[in-house]
Amino acid sequence: MRFVIxxxxxxxxxxxxxxAFEDLDYFCIDNLPPKLIPKFxxxxxxxxxxISKVAIVIDVRGGVFFDDLLKELENLRNGEYSYEILFLxxxxxxxxxxxxxxxxxxxxxxxxxxxxxxxxxxxxxxxIKLLADQMIDTSNLKxxxxxxxxxxxxxxKNKKSKxxxxxxxxxxxxxxxxxxxxxxxxxxLPNPFYIENLRSLTGKDEPVREYVLQSSETNIFLKKLxxxxxxxxxxxxxxxxxxxxxxxxxxxGKHRSVTIANYLYHHLKxxxxxxMMNHRDINKDSEALKK
Length: 291
Known about the structure:
The chain is of the alpha/beta class and 291 residues long. The protein has 2 domains: 2-154, Rossmann fold, CATH 3.40.50.300; 164-290, no CATH class. 43% of the residues lie in helices and 18% in strands. It contains 10 helices and 9 strands. It has a 5-stranded parallel sheet with strand order 2-3-1-4-5, with helices on both faces. A 4-stranded parallel sheet has the order 7-8-6-9, with helices on one face. Helix 1 crosses helix 6. The model has no long low-confidence stretch (mean pLDDT 86). This is UPF0042 nucleotide-binding protein. Pfam families: PapZ_C, RapZ-like_N.
């Protein structure tokens, strides 16, 4: 089990970090009291569901419980549990600016100035910082840059892109998918609905597929569509996007959109991308007839 403990200065980006670990399929817990670490570790190891990646945030928000962290880390080592520490840091100036922008209260604030609270926290975290396996200074990093660094360090090296591409075929008369990032209207393509022996079939059937794909406008459109999607995907990955929803729509979501969506799906699968398919409205017409 890969076990990562995330800690560091308040305002240095731990909330963004835990989101990045969630996108990497880590089991994540925020602000776990250190005394619960051994019990939590045992629970993960004994779980019937195989939990292979865990990330927890532990910091000074834990109050007096945080003081137990060094002792519990030593207990983990003595129990032959392996773990990694990721420490997030930032300059005082940046931390002060972030607290003022968010209007959040520093966990160690009392009557002290914010700068004094930050220095107090630095001193408290110094022993943990010395044990860190990875340190990231977030002073000049945007959230997407921090995510990119975490993904690079902690991603599963045996897996390729973690971008999930979800292709959805739909009918415009039933509405555009609310979560679509890209929407392509294919209602300009030849419509099998007006061919009597094709009307009852769908884009999954070979006669419909052949009818849609044989037209010159379809071939030109597919070439341009594939070129654009292949161009965009690396930039979405670089941006740190974890899911891309591509909507392909025709009038009823049964013939043209299904054909084009299937074509795009097989192209992306051939490129070894992580792709899912959803023909949202393919059975809507038949369901309406039954009613």
